[in-house]
Amino acid sequence: MSTVSRQLPDYYEYQEDGTIYHLKQVRYPEHMPLLHRWMHEPHVIPQWQLNLPLVPLSVYYEKMLADDHHRLYLVGINGQDMGYTEIYEGARDRLGRYYDGDPDDLGWHLLFGETSAFGKGHLRPVIRMLSYFIFEHSNAKKIVGEPDHTVKPYAVVVAELCYELQRLIPMPEKTAALYYCHRETFLNKFPKIPQPQVSASASESSIA
Length: 208
Known about the structure:
GO terms for molecular function: N-acyltransferase activity. Keywords: Transferase. By secondary structure, this protein is an alpha+beta fold. The protein is built from seven helices and eight strands. The protein has one domain (5-195): 3-Layer(aba) Sandwich (Aminopeptidase), CATH 3.40.630. The chain has an eight-stranded mixed β-sheet.
């Protein structure tokens, strides 16, 4: 079955202010040591709660990669992998229990694993890249988000990037802030969609 998320490209590049950002799909088991290290970083643990030993974390990712309602990517900056994102289908995700979703809705979760990326002004371009990526490669009319409402820096940044707060949602592990980013609003403010470089090589497309 070719789901909305499975139709997304395996690789994407975006350039802003001379910096090249990329998304490349997670490959298993190749990327497990990197993800394991990031999930044990002190700044990652509170939000992600995946600071598991390597074997349980590998089992978790085996299940994640088999689930066809999302795609998992590494986020790179100037050729170096710096973070991780999950792009998911909102209506088929657990979030679908909490809002009236459209089948084409896509959302994302994001972390910067490398602390060297902090304070360099990368968050806004990466979120802009994710938004372009989704709108260019899907029929999504909106992007959804559900971060913990206590993460204040997120709220400030996404408001600048056309993510509009809808309401608070009580979830088991957090009170989430439901955001929508509408295609028309985003592309009116940021009209130039970059041309991605999509790799068709087997090395980029295998998940094994």
